[in-house]
Amino acid sequence: MVRIRAFEDAAEDASQGGVAVYGQATSGRAKVRGPLHLSTGQEAVAAGVCAHLTANDYITSTHRGHGHTLAKGADMTRMMCELFGKAHGFNGGRGGSMHIADFSVGMLGANGVVGAGMPIAVGAAHAQKIQGRPDITACFFGDGAINRGPFLESLNWAQVYRLPVLFVCEDNQWSATTATSAMSAGAGAAARARSMDIEAVEVDGNDVLAVYRAAQELVNSVRKGDGPKLLHTRTYRVKGHVSVDKAAYRNPSEVEQALARCPIKKARALYLTMPGARADVLDQIEADAQAEIEAALAYADACDPPDPETAYTHIQTVGAGQWH
Ligand SMILES: Cc1ncc(C[n+]2csc(CCOP(=O)(O)OP(=O)(O)O)c2C)c(N)n1
C-alpha cells in the first residue's frame, strides 16, 4: 500500500511539472503528459487481493491501474518510465498510464475502455481452465463498469463455464463526474452477481485486513474449481477523476471523511495495537518506498524516449493487414 501511495503521489507531482526526487517543484513541462487516473486511497483493494495471487495468476485492470500493477509485482521503475513515455517503459513508452501490461508478472493490461478488461479476464480464465492449469484470473473493475454490457456478458460466461475468475469491483462511489448511486439501478455489483448464482461478498475496501481475509476465502474457492466469485469492495476516490480534475462537483466533506478513513493510516493504527509492534518498522517501510520511488523517478527522467526510427513499429496499416 505504501509503495502504491508513493507511486501515485510522485506520478501526480510529475504530471504537474514537478519531480519529487529533486525535492523541489519545477514549473517546466510536465514529465507525465496525458490523462493520469490515480488510485490514491484505494490501495487496500489492490494489496489485499493480489497478496493471494501467484506469479502465474493473471489480472486485468482498469484505466486506474497503477496500484493493481504494482501489487501484482511489476517493476516500479519500468512503470514510471512508461508514464514518462520512455523506452524502458513496459510498452516502450508508447502506451502510457492507461495501457500498461506486464505479461511477465501476469498483468494482462490496464484498459482505457470502461469494462473492457472483463471479457479479457474471462477469456484468460477460460484458457486456464482448458489447459488444466491451477491458476486463476482476478478481474478489477470500477463501480461504473457494472452498467456496461461486458459486465453482464462476462459474469454470465464465467458462471456458465465455471471459470476460475475472481471479479473485484473497486467501488469508489464515483464514475468520472457522476455519483454512481445516481445512475445505477438496484443494489449494485454483488446483487447483480447473485442474480446469476455467483457468490458475492461485500467488504470495507479501506480495511486491508478485511479485504485480505475476504479475498483469501474467495481466491481459495476459485482455485479449487468452484467457479467465479465476486468481491465488492467499498472505497472512495480521493482525487478527481483524472489528475487535472479538481472535482469541484462533489461535497468537500465526503472527501474529508474518506481521508480520515485512509487505508494506510488504518493499517498502521491496527498494527500498532498488536503485541510487539514497532513504529520504527513502519517508518522503515515508508522510507524504503520513498527511496524506491526517488530512484524510479531519477531513472525515468534520465531514460531516452523511443528511437524516432521506430515510430511506425507496432502500427498496422488499416486495410492492408500488414504490421510494421
Ligand atoms: C466504454 C466507455 N465509456 C465511457 C468512457 C469514459 N469514462 C472513462 S472513466 C469513466 C468512469 C468509470 O467509472 P468506474 O468504472 O466506476 O471507474 P473509476 O473511474 O471510478 O475508477 C468513464 C465514463 C470510457 N472510457 N469507456
Automatic annotation (TrEMBL):
Presence of the UniProt keyword Iron in the record: no
Entry-linked InterPro entries: DH_E1, PDH_E1_Alpha_Subunit, THDP-binding
UniProt-recorded name of the protein: Thiamine pyrophosphate-dependent dehydrogenase E1 component subunit alpha
Organism listed in the record: Orrella daihaiensis
Keyword Oxidoreductase: yes
Keyword terms: Oxidoreductase, Thiamine pyrophosphate
Domain Dehydrogenase E1 component as annotated: residue spans: 25-308
Pfam families reported in the protein's UniProt record: E1_dh (PF00676)
